[in-house]
């Protein structure tokens, strides 16, 4: 209560401590509830994946050929292709960067065409052929572009590398490797925060020559 410009009975240090303690309890309660709800959501996903029917229409089964292997994966209708690949198909090589389609770290090939998997719903690609970085090597031998990235030292931290390589494979297949400038233009959707662009272009050009 304010009297004559002064506060009557101002709060003591112990009052602040009590308020902070209550805040911590509330935060812990909130986190606990969130974890519990997360566990419930995981349980619902497991039930849906076990073949039970979701009467609310929130899940679907995506049937796709992923890296040459036919798979049937139950997902929430709102699940992105990126999250399905990483969390349900066990393919973490495809990276989650910006999650807004701006960095290219999540690039995969769908029916031979490169896309940002963070912007695509998994259910939109039922019946598709999907290739991730894990599916490029054959019989234990690296894809020529993977080898070119090693030979040309085309990566530093490596976080963007899987997306760069997948996009580069698409770039080569599309025939956009006539010059370094053309490669840079058609690879412009893939960001390298380390700045290894020159070597990335060199690797793609080298692989294209041997394609």
Task: Compile the SSE list and pairings.
Blueprint: E1 2-3, E2 6-7, H1 13-49, E3 59-66, E4 69-76, H2 81-88, E5 107-110, E6 113-116, E7 129-131, H3 144-151, H4 161-174, H5 180-186, H6 197-209
Parallel strand pairs: 3-7
Antiparallel strand pairs: 1-2, 3-4, 5-6, 5-7
Helix pairs in contact: 3-6, 4-6
What does this structure look like?
- Pathway: Alkaloid degradation; nicotine degradation.
- Keywords: 2Fe-2S, Iron, Iron-sulfur, Metal-binding, Oxidoreductase.
- GO terms for molecular function: 2 iron, 2 sulfur cluster binding; metal ion binding; oxidoreductase activity, acting on the aldehyde or oxo group of donors.
- Its EC number is 1.2.99.2.
- This is Carbon monoxide dehydrogenase small chain.
- The protein is α+β, with helices and mostly antiparallel strands.
- Among the domains are: 77 residues, Beta-grasp domain (Ubiquitin-like (UB roll), Roll), CATH 3.10.20; 67 residues, [2Fe-2S]-binding domain (DNA polymerase, domain 1).
- Helix content is 41%, strand content 15%.
- The chain has 6 helices and 7 strands.
- A 5-stranded mixed sheet has the order 4-3-7-5-6, with helices on both faces. A two-stranded antiparallel sheet has the order 1-2.
- The N terminus is likely disordered.
